[in-house]
Amino acid sequence: MENKIAVKVDDLTVAYNYKPVLWDIDLEIPEGVLMAIVGPNGAGKSTLIKSILGILKPIAGSVSIYDKPYEKQRQLVAYVPQKGSVDWDFPTTALDVVMMGTYGSLGWVKRPGQKQKKAALEALEKVGMLPFKNRQISQLSGGQQQRIFLARALVQNASIYFMDEPFQGVDATTEIAIINILKELRKAGKTVIVVHHDLQTVPEYFDWVTFLNVKKIATGPVKDIFNDDNLTKTYGINYKVSIQE
Amino acid sequence: MSSAQIEIQLIASLVAIACAIPGTFLVLRKMAMISDAISHSILPGIVIGFFITQDLNSPLLILLAALTGILTVVLVEYIQKTGLVKEDTAIGLVFPALFSIGVIMIAKNANDVHLDVDAVLLGELAFAPFDRLMVSGIDVGPKSLWIIGAILIITIGLLFAFFKELKVSTFDVGLAASLGFSPVVIHYGLMTVSSITTVGAFDAVGAILVVALMIAPAATAYLLTNELKRMLIYAICFGVFSAISGYWVAHWLDASIAGSITTMLGLLFLAVYLFAPSRGVIAVLYREKQQRTEVSLLTFLLHLKNHTEVRERHVNHLNEHINWQKVRSKTVLNLALKNNMIQLDNNIVSLTEKGEDFTSQAIDYIITNEDGKIEHMKDDFFLFRG
Q1: Residue A27: beta bridge partners?
Q2: Domains of chain B by residue range
Q3: CA gap B237, B229 in Å, rounded
Q4: Among B354, B9, B17, which residue's Cα sits nearest to residue B200?
Q5: Is residue A13 part of a domain?
Q6: Are strands B132-135 and A5-16 parallel, antiparallel or unpaired?
Q7: Closest Cα to residue B166, out of A54, A108, A113?
Q8: Cβ of A133 under 8 Å from any chain B Cβ?
Q9: Which ipTM was obtained for this model?
């Protein structure tokens, strides 16, 4: 398959206070894959996403989105941060949070109008959260909050979606609902990149995987590289996962 | 009311509005203490500015002092970034240092300078009308009124222009950064506005009241609303209300205006803290009591549904079996009766049709925990309150 490269990372090194968190990462993510980034705690999974999105400044290396720097391609990218990274007591409603997804296309100063509201309502409908549109966000369950975040990314109508642990602290129903939406995105030709923790579900949910532990261990199709060898290299212990199931 | 009285109230109200706007965002960003730091550490800036201009209301002085405010923020962040101390410690290190430099500068030059520490800490709103702005020989009003008015217009302009940017970067820094709304720019923009507002308000109300006017109205508004725009409007209203009522309290008590306004802010917060409809202490206690009763009622109904034997449904048995105190079981029994959920026949309790339906629905809800059903059940539960 000769797909276009959606995201290209070259020699990326990121450090917090001179301690490298990511070391010389080279990565090519083909268009249209549903990719998991896996690795132990502190492996730099979130850092990788944040560096690609320009939230963190790398000390070396470069990133391109469809051959151009991220700053020029913001409109093509949507980001779902970790749920715990925001204050859910913030005085705002579910609809308002989803509307924030439209701010990027509006640019500075311009305000959202009816068009943006309509898009936000459609996204809420897609994640099954329309009945909760006026609910204050602290009154939502963990799974509902994650759906709101997903809707906010959907409303950006991007080509590439980055998600930081979207399955953290959600129940089985929500997990299935989310993965179905992600699979739909892939079907529509979008590229979806997910920081993921549950190794058991990798073969079932994803078609592409990147093993990361400060350095990149391996990247490629799940059926080719999701094996004990790479798991052991990444996690440092003999990891037994049955990928036949 | 004399014109001086009106002017004082007008200045106090404008200061309150100018403070409430950045204050709301500081509270939401959990940066309330930064405003305290800024209000103290701008002192050396004010003193130096005063040496140069000999005028507490000069724009140069305001600019210099605002720069010191921003310097405070930069220093705090720098110290914090080393990872050696936490943010609150960094704040505690920076602002007393800068403030004390200002205090020493005042003390060294106290003889020839009209500026003293008391006025800096508490301000002197009562004197504000005496310092007039003269434009080609015509009196156009107190200088502080013009200064705070100008600052307020700029603040409101910025708020309208960048409301969405402020909102998204306050709620979700990561998203704001990925969308291209630089959180650093917005952060320092907010810090600059807070610093300038602090300096502008400082002369009129002093360092301590500035903090109170920034934080207390926003904190009070936070208890009352779930929407950012409303929070801003409430904060502004609380600020203005405290400013005006505080002025009159000071008038009647013949006490410090700044002190009275701050007292009003404190009282207002206390009242809302106690009586706010959904988050107030009393409302929370009441709701908890209601919920306990609802759970008891449900337990009671479930027991009836599970047991068809007469023995299990006798009133006295229920008392022993569910292990409630007499008063409690009586409340629950009456509540169920009042809502036609049960019927009593010779002290034998049985469910009515309505009671049966309600119990099945409740079990469904508890087992499936489906969102859709919660909505419906919440309305139902509400029927049985009180």
Answers
A1: A9
A2: 3-276, 282-380
A3: 13
A4: B17
A5: no
A6: unpaired
A7: A108
A8: no
A9: 0.89
Question: Which one, of B33, B46, B23, B31, lies nearest residue B99 by Cα?
Answer: B46
Q: Tell whether A59 lies on the interface with B, counting CB pairs under 8 A.
A: no
CA distance A26 to A5: 13
> How far does the CA of residue A188 sit from the closest CA of chain B (Å)?
23
| Rg from Cα positions in chain B | 29
Is residue B237 within 8 Å of A97, Cβ to Cβ?
A: no
In a domain, A209, yes or no: yes
Interface of B with A (CB under 8 A): 28, 30, 83, 161-165, 167-168, 170-175, 177-181, 222, 225-228, 230-231, 371-372, 375
Domains identified in chain A, total number: 1
A159 assigned to some structural domain: yes
Q: Is B83 left (phi over 0), alpha (psi -120 to 50) or beta?
A: left
If you search the block for the tokens 């603040």, which residue do you land on? B155
Class of domain B282-380 as given by CATH? mainly alpha
- Which three-class secondary structure state does DSSP give residue A215? strand
Q: Which chain A residues touch B161 with a CB distance below 8 Å? A: 109
Q: Quote the tokens at residue A145.
A: 């909050």
Determine the topology of domain B3-276 in CATH.
ABC transporter involved in vitamin B12 uptake, BtuC (1.10.3470)
Q: Residue B367 corresponds to which tokens in the numbers above?
A: 């087992």
* pLDDT one digit per residue (tens) for chain A, 245 residues: 457 899 999 999 998 877 889 999 999 999 999 999 999 988 899 999 999 998 988 999 999 999 999 989 999 999 999 988 999 999 999 999 999 999 998 989 899 999 999 999 999 999 999 999 999 999 898 889 999 999 999 999 999 999 999 998 888 888 999 999 999 999 999 999 999 988 999 999 999 999 999 999 999 999 999 988 899 888 887 655 544 44
For A235, residues 6+ apart whose C-beta sits below 8 A from its C-beta are A39, A40, A213
User: Does residue A191 form part of some domain?
Assistant: yes
Give CA separation, B27 vs B3, B196, B215, B229, B272, in Å: 35, 18, 7, 14, 17
In this structure, what token pair is assigned to residue B195? 């610093």
Residue A139 is part of a domain; what is its CATH number?
Answer: 3.40.50.300
**Contact partners, residue B237, CB within 8 Å, separation at least 6:** none
**pTM of this structure:** 0.87
Task: Residue A111: list chain B partners with CB under 8 A.
Answer: 163-164
Which one of A79, A133, A147, A157 would you mutate to disrupt binding with B, by most B Cβ within 10 Å of its Cβ?
A79
Does any CB of chain B come closer than 8 Å to the CB of residue A157? no
Domain range enclosing A188: 33-46+76-235
